Amino acid sequence: MWRRLDDNQLIKKIHQGNADALERLIQKYYPEIYRFCYRKTGNPHIAADLTQEVFLRLVKSLDNYIHEGKFKSYLFTIALNLCHDYFRKQPPGMQRLDDFEVPAAENQITRIEQSYVVKEALSRLPDIQKDVVILRFYHDLTLPDIADIIGANLSTTKSRLKQGLEKLKKFFREEDFC
Amino acid sequence: MELTMDRLTKMYGSKVAVDRLTATLHKGVYGLVGANGSGKTTLMRMICDILKPTSGVIAYNGTDIHRLGEDYRDLLGYLPQHFGYYPDFSAYDFLMYMAALKGLPQSKAKQKSLELLELVGLTGEKGKKINSFSGGMRQRLGIAQAMLNDPKILILDEPTAGLDPKERVRFRNLISSFGTERIVILSTHIVSDVEYIADEILIMRKGTLLDHGPVNHITAHIHGAVWECEVSESEAAQLNDRYTISHLKHLGSGVNLRIVSESKPCESALPTSPTLEDLYLHYFKEESHRDR
Amino acid sequence: MTDQKLKEILHRYSVPEIDPAHLRQTIQLAQKELNRARIYGKITFWELLAGQIRYISPYIWIAQAALLVLVFSLLPHLSRIGDAQQTAMAVLSTSSPLLALVAVPELGKSLHYQMWEMEMACRFNLQKLILLRLILFGVADLIVITTLLLFSSTHSPVSLIHLGMYILVPFTMANSLYLFILRKVRGKAATAAALSAGIFLSLGFALLSRFSDAYAVTTLTGWFLLFFLSAWILTREISTLFTYFSEGEQLIWIRS
């Protein structure tokens, strides 16, 4: 019976205290939120902790959740805010992604290198452009949804994406990446 | 969290039940103490928005509770002094019914009902008809229904009525753990019920708030007016007629008396530190004489 | 470089595997948080209404069904003897006060069993509960009345509108009377008072339809006037009842 429930129906059940519906919702969105937090922070442990915090924050804020817009956007808004809070709490200088860890499944040197180069490229973008690029390219969100999440209007979002993409292309060209 | 009463008055016809009562309550357990007919129940009914004040206002965090309506009732748990139940209800049915009226969704209602049955020690009786329950069991069930919606304001009118000593102890523990994060008001005419669990005592007489504060604060008001003495049986009988006796103990040689009196009652009397019971007797001399 | 190519490059940035233990921990923590949180999602009035049906005493439905069966079995026989119009009138006008009577104990039960004070302090207070019960019985009565009408119109030459009036006028009158009694008579006596009033009313209508020529020949306009008058009284009675149930002091008769 769960298959047929969309996000809003799940939320309604969770609202009524249904723990199974909550499990279902977390199963569904955990991987995506985790990937987002990982790409924002570059550290798997911090990403996991932030992901957990996103869902706890969701439960606490259900009271204020109103059914307008997509639930997924709402979840990303929480995630984005928490990531920003995380960086704000870090002393300056520690924000860089020196603690690069080798993804467990990867073992070929070239792939690790490539992964590293992309990470490096993203890290050079200012946060406001990086957020838009990550949401657009890794999470396939539409521009209006992204605008909603980052709390900017559509044209600002578009221009941030454009600037971000140009910088990335330039970087990859200089690195002779293809 | 703040519950304020401002010159609260309730009249039934020409009879004043609550008379310009002003008080501010914060988180904590309040013991509302007073003789029968002192206006405790009327006050509690007004706090529950069951009775409308004739004049004056009750406000929760600054807003008139009557205007808050169902939002206020969401925060409210109430155990009336007298209550019944529909005859075909089991303990569990009763809680599920009340939970629905309190707006709890089915799954939450089940969970809370079972949790509270456990808390008041009725898990074993959950399927039994309330008809077959003792007075104490009914009272415990009543307390459970008041807590179903996890109230921020819990109003209990004579909650210990009908409870046996063991149940009283259990009730006290329950309330003291409950009172840290909410406003709990419980009325009683049995002082010892609230002496140890109430953070603050409110003493009501004839519709007014006679005194209020933590137990040691308000008992200090009658410092020097409580005496202890050892006298013979015949002297004790005389003193009993003239003074308010708070405690009487027969010894081999005579009688040990505890007397509440502004003046020294007899030669051998020594002042002693007052308890809440003494204070109550001090305020309710007339009523307690009448009771005898 | 195309956007497509860029996307491909970006996706070379892979993410470590998810730790299933951490996922499980997250679910558990979130569920704990959900349990601890105050109950936020409140049910709506209509959800409450659906849930309350099972608390309505089954005897109500049985009594209503019994009444229907009784009319069904009596009407065809009776219409064969005597004046058809008078018979229809007698049967319908007698049964409709009884139909309304069936709901009285349910409406009065909060007071009867001293549940009203607890109910008044709930989110859905006594006033809403009474409204809810009125809606439930109103719908049930409407179904019964429709069935009665359709049935009697097949067994009687009298027009549907006349039949409707024969049912609705006594029905609304009876309801007003019962609600008035519920409001005026306190405690357990209320149900008994309503019961006797109902039987009295029912007998009254039976006699009236049998013996009063005026009653039988009253024109349709007359019936409509009667109906609107009784409906107006009923509406006023219902609104008075709600004011009554919103003021606790009206309900307190047990002095503490």
From TrEMBL, chain A:
Start and end residues of each RNA polymerase sigma-70 region domain: 25-90, 121-170
Q: Which UniProt keywords apply?
A: DNA-binding, Sigma factor, Transcription, Transcription regulation
Q: Which domain of life is it from?
A: Bacteria
Q: Does the keyword DNA-binding apply?
A: yes
Q: Which CDD domains match?
A: Sigma70_r4 (cd06171)
Q: Does the keyword Membrane apply?
A: no
Regarding protein family, the annotation reads: Belongs to the sigma-70 factor family. ECF subfamily.
Question: Known NCBIfam families for this protein?
Answer: sigma70-ECF
| Name under which the protein is recorded | RNA polymerase sigma factor
To which species is this protein native?
Answer: Heliobacterium chlorum
UniProtKB/TrEMBL annotation, chain B:
SUPFAM superfamilies membership: P-loop containing nucleoside triphosphate hydrolases
The reply on keyword Chloroplast is no
Domain ABC transporter residue range list: 3-231
Gene3D superfamilies under this entry? P-loop containing nucleotide triphosphate hydrolases (3.40.50.300)
Presence of keyword Nucleotide-binding: yes
**Highest taxon in the source lineage:** Bacteria
Q: Which GO terms describe its molecular function?
A: ATP binding
**One Pfam match, by short name?**
ABC_tran
Q: Which UniProt keywords apply?
A: ATP-binding, Nucleotide-binding, Transport
Q: Which InterPro entries match?
A: AAA+_ATPase, ABC_transporter-like_ATP-bd, ABC_transporter-like_CS, P-loop_NTPase
* Family statement drawn from the similarity comment of this UniProt entry: Belongs to the ABC transporter superfamily.
Protein name as annotated = ABC transporter ATP-binding protein
Species the sequence originates in: Heliobacterium chlorum
TrEMBL record, chain C:
Q: Membrane-spanning regions, if any?
A: 56-75, 87-108, 129-151, 163-182, 189-208, 214-234
**What UniProt keywords are attached to this protein's entry?**
Membrane, Transmembrane, Transmembrane helix
Protein name (record): Uncharacterized protein
Q: Which organism is it from?
A: Heliobacterium chlorum
